[in-house]
């Protein structure tokens, strides 16, 4: 006769809390680079406003838009407005995409280089305001991995934000490198900030440290 003991644990609540934590961290990141995003949106908005004011002034002067030269000028001005409006929409769309809840188990084929460039598009405004230069040394060949896109984006953004926070008011340089060696893929984020003291390095993977 055999005695069998079966122990079961309901981890539904834990999984839900972990999901909520990941979402909260993503929203916290959005708060961090909101200043940079505001700067990014203000630029195209200024161009749109300037072009609209120019057209209004031309209409007030009674310009003949049927004339060939004036018609071309009108078309060019409207195209500039349309381009900058699309640019604003893209910035907001990328933010909303980054902020949305995602399934941590969802995996897909990801180009590491494209992922790095996507993250940099989101936060380049903030880095520019902090006088931080980004140097990209991305592999010439397309490196593809299988994983969760949103979580990998969050990892890259965390590394860049940590690098940014280690620099003073004078700014600095962040170097991002991708390479592949046989079956391994490397993503390297390097900065010239103050570094991590040896005595606390063993704690860096603790939550909220």
Task: Please render the helix and strand layout as text.
Layout (H helix, E strand, L loop, with lengths): L11 H21 L1 H27 L7 H32 L8 E4 H18 L2 E6 L6 E4 L1 H17 L6 E10 L2 E8 L18
Parallel strand pairs: 2-4
Antiparallel strand pairs: 1-3, 4-5
Question: Would you kindly provide a written description of the structure presented here, covering whatever features stand out?
Answer:
With 209 residues, the chain is an alpha+beta fold. It is built from five helices and five strands, in the order αααβαββαββ. The strands form two sheets. Strands 2-4-5 form a three-stranded mixed beta sheet. A two-stranded antiparallel ribbon has the order 1-3. Helix 2 runs antiparallel to helix 3 (68-99). It is elongated, with a radius of gyration of 24 Å. The model has no long low-confidence stretch (mean pLDDT 79).
């Amino acid at each position: 006769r055999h005695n069998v003991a079966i122990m079961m644990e309901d981890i539904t609540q834990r999984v839900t809390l972990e999901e909520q934590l990941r979402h909260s961290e993503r929203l916290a990141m959005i708060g961090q680079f909101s200043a940079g995003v505001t700067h990014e949106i203000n630029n195209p908005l200024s161009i749109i406003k300037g072009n609209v004011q120019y057209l209004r002034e031309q209409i007030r002067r009674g310009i003949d838009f049927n004339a060939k030269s004036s018609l071309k000028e009108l078309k060019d001005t409207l195209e500039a407005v349309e381009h900058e409006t699309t640019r604003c929409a893209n910035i907001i769309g990328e933010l909303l995409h980054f902020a949305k809840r995602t399934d941590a188990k969802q995996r897909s084929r990801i180009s590491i280089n494209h992922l790095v460039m996507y993250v940099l598009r989101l936060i380049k405004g903030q880095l520019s305001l902090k006088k931080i230069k980004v140097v990209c040394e991305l592999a010439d060949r397309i490196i593809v991995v299988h994983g969760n896109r949103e979580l990998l984006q969050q990892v890259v953004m965390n590394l860049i934000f940590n690098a940014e926070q280690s620099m003073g008011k004078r700014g600095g340089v962040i170097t991002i490198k991708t390479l592949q060696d046989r079956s391994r893929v490397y993503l390297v984020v390097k900065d010239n900030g103050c570094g991590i003291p040896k005595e606390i390095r063993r704690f860096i993977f603790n939550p909220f440290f």
